[in-house]
Structures are given as structure tokens and as C-alpha cells.
Amino acid sequence: MTELLEATAQPTPDPPTPDPMVPRVFRVERTRQDTRDTYTLELSPLDGEPLRFAPGQFTMLQAWGIGEVPISISGDPHGSGLLEHTIRNVGNVTRALVHTSRGATVGVRGPFGTGWEVERGAGGDVVFIVGGIGLAPLRPAILHVVRHRDQYGRVVLLYGARTPDDILFAPDLEHWQDDCGIDVAVTVDNAPHSWRGRVGFVTSLIPRAGFDPLRTTAYVCGPEVMMRSSALALRDRGVAADRIRLSMERSMKCGIGLCGHCQLRELFLCVDGPVLGFDRLEPLMSRWEL
Ligand SMILES: Cc1cc2nc3c(=O)[nH]c(=O)nc-3n(C[C@H](O)[C@H](O)[C@H](O)COP(=O)(O)OP(=O)(O)OC[C@H]3O[C@@H](n4cnc5c(N)ncnc54)[C@H](O)[C@@H]3O)c2cc1C
To answer: In the list 62, 174, 175, 265, which could disulfide-bond 68, CB 3.0-4.6 Å?
Structure first.
């Protein structure tokens, strides 16, 4: 097992900048529109030092003069050195970020937070359960598994989007299914008549997914209600709660456990999370007012 863990070891993430409140400056090299409201930015560091991160970590991304928001890293942890962020345009800061011109700069603090620890799933089956833009934070973990595919058993990716137009990273999904030994199943909540695929919530895919619960590690990312119902369904099938990992995206400001914006009872989600086991999260997720 030790050998296996070494073989699948992830790059050691960078510590935050000497002063974690001071952003590094990154240039926008390319912006790709993924769906109607979602864009991927590829960023290069002006100081030439690539940002190393663990899958599941996030940065605080700053549009100068507008504001700063937490955004997960969506690129390959073993990749080219460009930092990738996939951002849904929902408000002031995300709008400014996705419209930052090529060649202009943004601020980056971090990386912050816990990761998926996808190497813990080596030797067993892996199930990714994803809702909507949750595929962005999980993409680095999936790319890690693809790179070390022979060290995992059955790998299943269950993905739910609102409509066919909201399906993120469609070429990746096809590639993972056709070339990488991952069983990908996609479903949508609503579809036009022309859609030939599945319709229904992502949880409806779990019973037919065909993994061995006793040797499965699950990684779940999406809206909180979807993560909770997925985690409960997995646990009912026999997956251990501490092997069900979820990413909690609550409002965050400092990213370093000082300001308290992301406090969830005893947890500061920016440092204790965002990725945590269902064994710790279940009592907190059942109380919406927390
Ligand atoms: C750890 C972490 C990782 C994240 N990763 C990503 C990512 O990879 N891609 C991405 O697009 N977004 C991600 N988010 C959410 C992102 O931070 C918010 O969408 C962003 O803060 C909205 O800022 P805004 O100023 O553009 O919009 P605002 O004007 O602040 O809000 C616009 C709308 O978005 C809602 N909103 C605000 N913050 C959040 C939040 N944290 N989660 C859900 N809804 C929110 C508001 O309720 C409001 O309805 C992440 C959040 C966290 C905590």
C-alpha cells in the first residue's frame, strides 16, 4: 500500500505567498467559453513561477478594483504551468473576471484549503458524483486518476446538468469514456425533445453504477442538496461515510481562517475544507441555518 501511495503521490501544493493576503499577479493567456454562462481562464504567473496545487484546492481570485472570490482550480495538477479556473458568471466579481481581456492581469492568492486526496482511493473503485459546475473542482482529481488509471479499480463518473446546454467539458467527458477507461453517465434535469440521453437527477444513476461499495471511495461536488442526497444514497449502499468526500462552497473572504465568513459550527471551511468527509459533514449539513 505504501508503494501504491508513493506511486500516485500528487504534487506538493505551494504554500500561500509569504503574506497570504497579498495576491500574486497572473496574466490572462486565453479565455474559453464552455457554456452559456461559464468560462475557463488560463492564467500565467508574471513572476514565472507556476502555482502548484492539490486537486480540490481553490484560490482567491481578484478582479482589480472590483473584488475577490474563491474559485477552485480546474486544470491538470501535472499540467503545463498555466493555472486554469472555470467560472460561472453569476455576479459582480465573476462577471469582471470572465470578461478580463487577454493580456490583462488578475490577482491570485493561495492555493488554499484541503484537497480531494484522490490517492486515498487507489487500490479500490472510485465514484465521482457531480452536479453542474461541480465538474470544475473535480476535474483535477479526474485527471489525476486518468494519469494513474492502472492503480484504480472501476472508475465511474455520474454527471448531472440542468439542461444539455449546461453540460460542462463535453469533449473531456467523451475522451474519459472512450479512451481512459472511465464509465461516464450523464443525465439532465430538463431536455428538449431532440435530446436522446437520460433525464433525471444524478442520484438516479447511483443504483446502476456497478461499483463495489466496500472498496469504493466517492468524490461528490455540486449544489449542497445534491451532495447530501448523493452521500446518503452512497452510504445506504454501504460506502463508508469517511470515504465519501464532499466540497463545501460557503461564502469565503480571507481564505486563511481569520474572518469567520465560512464558519460552520467548529469548522472554518476555508482551512478545514472545502473538501471534507461525510462523517464530519453530515450533522452540519442537516441544519440549513448553520
Ligand atoms: C471553495 C469555493 C470554490 C468555488 N469554486 C468555484 C468555481 O470553481 N467556479 C465558480 O464559478 N464558482 C465557484 N465558487 C463560487 C464563487 O465563489 C461565487 O460564485 C462567487 O463568489 C460569486 O461572486 P460574485 O461577486 O460574482 O457574485 P455575487 O454578487 O456575490 O453573487 C451572485 C449570486 O451567486 C450566489 N453566490 C455567491 N457566493 C456563492 C457561493 N460561494 N456559492 C454559491 N453561490 C454563491 C449569490 O447568492 C447570488 O445569488 C466557489 C466557492 C467556494 C467557497
So the answer is: 62
